[in-house]
């Protein structure tokens, strides 16, 4: 976006800076991998880092841009993961890897978005703590429902049950697809760092464009003052539904990427429970509520730090906690934020050649 004199606005420079930052990091990591400078442990973390960064972008849209507290986003990720893995398991032998994975990602996002829309109808009429409690309950319900589903396939077609594997009545050569609490096994390993980066870039572009659009300004006005926004004719519920549904779709994409990076997909509390939703919320808060770039950086840093500190054994979580506190103080202190804008962000902008506004 440019102003009347043809120069880039501050928002446009910030958005361009975020996209350039992601492209530079991707190029640097790809070059390091090609040169053999990335060990196998860190290489195995690249896809999960992309998943967590996408989830941070997704949740930031609800918490930072819309201003609503959701602590059940792991539920949407869970729905996207199982919907996409279910499709891939069904079509593993009848479709090529690329079209199958592409369709699986779209299915994961679509199913998660559908559930986001359904949940949003009653939930988004609530505010504050009530919204947080309902989204928390939704995340836990989804996880527990998936654990009681049994789906199998044989020559007669698909069989569904909630009473156990024996109740399916599969033929001897039948195949289990979803095996209750044991989840889905044998999902194709289609996720790569490149695909994760592309999904992250798409998510960032969608959120940044939404934020800077007319709809985005309406969403932020609801965040700032819901009553005032409604008094000037802004359809509050509709715009809240829009942001919540888009956020759920992005979370579904992350779930599809996550599912195709695992040998066994199980709906456990460690993967899709309350603590995972809180972790995503930590990314958003530490990155600066409303800052897409900050949410991504926080997701990357906080995912890498515990792994890089494993050599410290029992002290690594203590150091991790100290780093969390320092990041919080630095990120939310007005003096430190002003120093970062002046000495770091300002130099980056000058380095990219972006002109200052008059």
Description of the molecule:
By secondary structure, the chain is mainly alpha-helical. It has one domain: ABC transporter involved in vitamin B12 uptake, BtuC, CATH 1.10.3470. Helix content is 69%, strand content 5%. The protein has 14 helices and five strands. The strands form two sheets. Strands 2-1-3 form a three-stranded antiparallel β-sheet, covered by helices on one side. A two-stranded antiparallel ribbon has the order 4-5. Helix 2 packs antiparallel against helix 9. The longest helix has 27 residues. The relative contact order is 0.18. The C terminus is likely disordered.
Topology:
Layout: H1 10-34, H2 40-66, H3 73-90, H4 97-123, H5 129-146, E1 150-154, E2 157-161, E3 175-179, E4 184-185, H6 193-211, H7 214-224, H8 226-231, H9 236-259, E5 264-265, H10 269-272, H11 274-287, H12 292-308, H13 316-332, H14 334-352
Antiparallel strand pairs: 1-2, 1-3, 4-5
Helix pairs in contact: 1-6, 2-6, 2-9, 2-11, 2-12, 3-4, 3-5, 3-9, 4-9, 6-9, 7-9, 11-12
Give helix and strand order, one letter per element, not per position: HHHHHEEEEHHHHEHHHHH
What's the CATH class, please? Mainly Alpha
Sheet/helix structural class? mainly alpha
How many domain modules? 1
Strand content: 5-15%
The CATH architecture would be Orthogonal Bundle
SS elements, strand count = 5
As a percent range, the share of helical residues equals 55-70%
Report how far the terminal alpha carbons are from each other. 15 Å
Number of helices: 14
